From TrEMBL:
Keywords: Hydrolase, Signal
Keyword DNA-binding recorded: no
Record's protein name: N-acetylmuramoyl-L-alanine amidase
Family annotation (Pfam families): Amidase_3, AMIN
Source species: Pelovirga terrestris
Domain MurNAc-LAA, residue spans: 405-556
Catalytic activity: Hydrolyzes the link between N-acetylmuramoyl residues and L-amino acid residues in certain cell-wall glycopeptides
Regions that span the bilayer: none
Any one GO biological process: peptidoglycan catabolic process
Molecular function as annotated in GO: N-acetylmuramoyl-L-alanine amidase activity
């Protein structure tokens, strides 16, 4: 009996030893590849960040434990591809940067690999399309051509450079992207103008350029700190002033001059050493410099405009931005998510006080419907998600549009939802639609934005002219994802209970109420108050409750997709 027991124990020990050995070896590459294929072919799996992170961890383990495996190059490439896919699903800048880092790491470790040209090309695409870093993309596309001349992505890289109006040089360029040393383009870019905006906690300097440029920032410390950029192979416009005086407590002045035959230099003289952020934008090409800090004296909102800007447009834009000294625009820019998930949501009932919003054929005022629905939504969010919810207004009071996002920024909201009811001149239009902040792609979207902003279409055109710059740090990708999830849930939730629910889709527009929000934000048009049938629904508590529950479901799906679930 003892012998039998001993043999049984020995068999169990051998079994556990075999299991531990298998775990130590990790998953095989074939299994990892199968897991990768399963993930990228399933939209449902892609919605959960944990699925991406689990696969990434398995790739990390495989690479660490099997450096000599015959499939190690494949594993490096698929790991980078997984980060690439995660960046597309999340819209996160840090995820995109990590994908680029891993693509470049593969190209450095395995320069002769058949994956090297693909890795460099994908890194360039991320820089161009996801990060709006055209200079970085140009350098990476050139690396594809000169580091991997026999690769199958060389022709594609040439097409990309041609589309960027960059001449492909016949001689190899440096492969040290970190030093930002690139060859001269066929036609030298031109620094056309320098503009700036001042707010209570930042100054934004915008360099308008005719083409992508290479610009490496340098910060000189000391009693007279200054931030300067050498713009490689860049000329200066003849109308560009030698200096622009700002003196707002953060920045003293901005100077531009030709430094030598190969570069121009832009110098930003600072009041003291400050934090800064650089963003490159295209269509048109700009270099945006945000300098953050509390000014030593009260700043004033000013706009340094190029000479070609008309006074009429200037007055309209200044009005849109809010040039009143008592109401400064707030732009607190979150550097990175703290990883705590969604804990605070600000709900904004549109209109209010002396602004009734749209009025239905039976006298229903949009401001009243929005407030009633906002209170129901706030209660549903607190009950179903356990998050903190604040309203921009809890009674019938008037708020400036900019005050609404200022409030959301000030309290550190994780999401901003603005509730509205749609309207047209006729009574037949019906349906639900959700908007996020961007340039209007259709005349209808521009018209809705004009109505909600209380502006003319000409004002909207002027506003779009500056949105290029003001949205440089807005969470556009996250907001579009939030709007998509909310719209899908609205259509699904309402269609199961009401007839004639028309899906008008997710749209983008220059909504002033969303301008300046530093968190993902969306504007919901829950129905047409000018349609008698939908006006009646908007007055119904049941309809308001169903809209609120649908928005909650949309936020749930958004949070799961972005890996931002903070509630149990």
């Amino acid at each position: 009996m003892r012998i039998v027991l001993f043999v049984a124990l020995l068999q169990l020990l051998l079994l556990f030893s075999a299991v531990d050995s298998g775990q130590a070896q990790g998953t095989s590459y074939v299994e990892l590849r199968q897991d990768y294929q399963q993930l990228i072919t399933s939209a449902q799996l892609q919605r959960q960040r944990t699925n991406w992170e689990r696969l990434i961890s398995n790739f990390d383990r495989f690479i660490a434990q099997r450096p000599g495996d015959t499939a190690i190059e494949n594993a490096y490439f698929l790991r980078a591809r997984t980060w690439h896919g995660l960046s597309q699903a999340s819209g996160g800048r840090s995820d995109a940067e990590e994908a680029i880092r891993l693509y470049l790491d593969l190209a450095k470790r395995f320069p002769a690999s058949r994956f090297a040209d693909d890795a460099l090309f994908h890194a360039a695409e991320i820089a161009q399309q996801r990060l709006n870093d055209q200079s970085r993309a140009i350098g990476l596309y050139r690396r594809v051509i000169h580091d991997t001349p026999t690769g199958d992505m060389v022709s594609e890289a040439r097409k990309k450079l041609t589309a960027l109006s960059v001449t492909v040089p016949p001689e190899p360029v440096t492969t040290n992207v970190e030093q930002h040393q690139y060859e001269e383009v066929a036609q030298a870019p031109l620094l056309q103008s320098i503009r700036y905006w001042s707010g209570p906690e930042y100054t934004r300097v915008v360099l308008d350029l005719s083409a992508p440029v290479v610009a490496k920032p340098n910060l000189l410390r000391g009693n007279s700190p200054r931030l300067y950029f050498d713009l490689v192979y860049t000329d200066l416009s003849g109308q560009l002033p030698d200096e622009i005086i700002i003196n707002n407590g953060l920045v003293q002045r901005v100077r531009a001059s030709r430094f030598d035959t190969q570069r121009s230099r832009v110098v930003i003289d600072l009041e003291r050493e400050l934090e800064y952020r650089i963003t490159t934008l295209d269509n048109p090409h700009r270099l945006v410099v945000d300098i953050m800090g509390s000014p030593s004296r009260a700043p004033q909102v000013q706009i340094a405009r190029p000479p070609s800007t008309s006074p009429i447009a200037d007055d309209s834009i200044a009005h849109i931005l809010g040039s009143s000294a008592s109401k400064q625009p707030v732009m607190r820019i979150k550097q990175q998510s703290n990883g705590d998930g969604i804990r605070l949501i600000v709900v904004d009932p549109g209109h209010g006080g002396r602004d009734p919003g749209a009025i239905g054929p039976n006298g229903t005022r949009e401001k009243d419907v929005n407030l009633a629905m906002a209170k129901i939504l706030a209660a549903a969010l607190r009950q179903q998600l356990g998050v903190k919810v604040l309203l921009t207004r809890e009674d019938d009071r008037y708020l400036e549009l900019r005050e609404r996002t200022e409030y959301a920024n000030r309290v550190g909201a994780d999401l901003f939802i603005s509730l509205h009811a749609n309207a047209t001149t006729g009574s037949r239009a019906y349906g639900v639609e959700t908007y996020f902040l961007n340039l209007a792609k259709t005349d209808e979207a521009a018209a809705v934005a004009a109505r909600e902003n209380g502006m003319t279409l000409q004002d909207i055109s002027n506003l779009e002219a500056i949105l290029f710059d003001l949205m440089a740090n807005a969470k556009i990708n996250e907001s579009s994802r939030l709007a998509a999830e909310v719209q899908q849930s609205l259509v699904a939730g309402l269609s199961s209970r009401y007839s004639n629910i028309r899906d008008l889709g997710v749209k983008q527009g220059p909504f002033h109420v969303l301008l300046g929000a530093t968190m993902p934000s969306a504007l919901v048009e829950s129905a047409f108050i000018t349609n008698p049938r939908e006006e009646k629904r908007l007055n119904s508590v049941d309809y308001q409750r169903h809209v609120a529950n649908a928005i909650v479901q949309g936020i749930k799906k958004y949070a799961a997709a972005m890996g931002q679930v903070a509630w149990k």
